Fold:
Amino acid sequence: LCGIGFMMGALALASFVLFLSAGQPLPPLIAAAPFQQAAPIPAPATPLPTPSPELVAAIPVMPLETTAPAAPPEPIEPQPIQPTVAAPAAAPDEPTLPAPVEIVDAPPTEATPPQPAPETPPATEAAPPLVPVEATLPPVVEARPEPELPPTATPSLPPATLPINSGGLGLTRAEWEAKRGSPAEDDGGALVRYGAPETGSYDVSFTEDRVMYVRFDNEQGQDAEFLEAMGASLLPADAQFVNSYSPALTPDMVVRVYKSQSLIEQLGIGCYCWFGGEPGTAIVMYTLVSDPESGERVSNSVTVGTGSSP
Structure:
């Protein structure tokens, strides 16, 4: 096959050389149109020249190589499989017991008591060095003198130009002592005592030389009717009863409220002695308790004062 191919290639080469020597152009190549049948190639106008014997003789021809046929494979003879038999396991060796040991009782020995371990004194830690602490004092603040406030002027009572028809409240001290006599006790305190407790005493408080408070005491218990009459006798003659009440915290106390126009004229509308009440108000108050012998509710004192609050 290789030789035939070589000869065909030699002939093609010889034809190409003849075309060149004769000056003939190569036949044009016609490309096949897509999807169209190729047109037949026209025969050349001049027939191809036949190569001369000299040219053919000049072209070497290689002899074809012959290949010896391969020898058929030798048949493989099956080999018989010999069964494998496991060797019998060897019998285990009998265990070898150790020789018996004869136990001989040893003579008793005294036990040695354990020796206490020597005590190790605790290690003493060195105290840290003392570091002096600097005391930080607060800044010194200079004391500033407080501004002096002008003294608060207490409103004064109007002068007693006209005498008041009263048994106690609103009278000047001279008018009171003209009726009750000189004081039995006067230590310069808030109250001045007139009379004796056995027959009836009066503790009086004067404000700007005017009677503002009177308490009548009697060792003998008196009923409510007596107490109300005694209290009314210490009020101005024109005092009119307004109402009565008992404070929530002291239900046994009786407070009777009165109002007097002569007190307003004597003490003034803006007097501090009204204590938040209406100007010209005055009260009579007493506390009733049960008499252990008679069982009646009695009291041994009655108090009168300006204002409407006890």
